Amino acid sequence: MPDGPLLFQPLKLRSVTLPNRVVVSPMCMYSAQGGLANDFHLVHLGQYALAGTGLIIAEATAVSPEGRISPEDLGLWEDRQITPLGRVTDFVHAQGGLIGVQLAHAGRKASTYAPWRGRGAVPIERGGWDVIGPDATPYSDAFPQPHAMTEEDIERVTEDFRQAARRAEIAGFDVVEIHAAHGYLLHQFLSPLANTRTDGYGGTFENRTRFVLEVTRAVREVWPRHKPLFVRLSATDWAPGGWDESQTVVLAGLLAREGVDVLDLSSGGLTAAQQITLAPAYQAPFAAQVRAAVPDLTVMTVGMIDTPERAEGLLQNGDADLIALARPVLGDPHWVQAAARDLGGTLEVAAPYQRGTRTT
């Protein structure tokens, strides 16, 4: 048995060893211009490295301009976006930290306002753009009307993910995560509620999962073999007739065969009709189900894990291997230091911050 809390035990993923099991979940900050990272991203992400967080995952980063959620999203669709993100990864590494990036395409949920700037679709005259999806059904009346993707569009977007992963390696990221959750493009193809196609990318489970498997294969081909690959899935749509836990378990096994190392399990976001029963750690059972069914995968859980004791309990129960935190660390960037004090864990932090770990 390991000494001390599991939350502060290292975890080896290929050649990358996380010093602890606390992960900063990707959180959209809507603070970029032209997809370019700036000083905000350096400070925002860098603070988690100073605190000693096990892994930081940068927000949903668009693989193409049309794939942005909002005009202010980060991007990796062109080479000039590499250097600004490299500033961030260089700083994190200088503090002894590890950092990943979530590669994303918003599909029919693209071209929308940042939360504090408005709601729904951004019109073309205000910087919006035409959006795409599995079919021509919008997310809701307030969202853009998508164009149904052709097979050529699917091939192009797959290549966009491949090239973004190549740029992520040049930028110095330790981990790449493919975003296939929260109602964005890859999730849209998975769910019968958003995918009414009748070709090889719609209808059966095999067809609906084809796109995400092709994207995963393309990314794994260019992402270095010694670096881990994550995929984020919504385990359920929380709506009748949609994507659900049983399909997630089967897809998890297929992703493991494609070289995925970590499954990051969230839920929802696909339909405005979703009915979610919220409770502390309400998504952990999804992670536990996948972890039991697909032992080759490392599993991460996220959602309403508000205390160190709850995070530790999930690990002790075998529900998950990693704990991803969003709002808790947004409210307290040094959450991991407080957790180490509360649980009696050993935490390595940047030298100037080491006095803050003392109890006397």
From TrEMBL:
<keyword id="KW-0285">Flavoprotein</keyword>
<protein>
    <submittedName>
        <fullName>Oxidoreductase</fullName>
    </submittedName>
</protein>
<dbReference type="InterPro" id="IPR044152">
    <property type="entry name" value="YqjM-like"/>
</dbReference>
<feature type="domain" description="NADH:flavin oxidoreductase/NADH oxidase N-terminal">
    <location>
        <begin position="7"/>
        <end position="342"/>
    </location>
</feature>
<dbReference type="InterPro" id="IPR013785">
    <property type="entry name" value="Aldolase_TIM"/>
</dbReference>
<keyword id="KW-0560">Oxidoreductase</keyword>
<keyword id="KW-0521">NADP</keyword>
<keyword id="KW-0288">FMN</keyword>
<dbReference type="Pfam" id="PF00724">
    <property type="entry name" value="Oxidored_FMN"/>
</dbReference>
<dbReference type="InterPro" id="IPR001155">
    <property type="entry name" value="OxRdtase_FMN_N"/>
</dbReference>
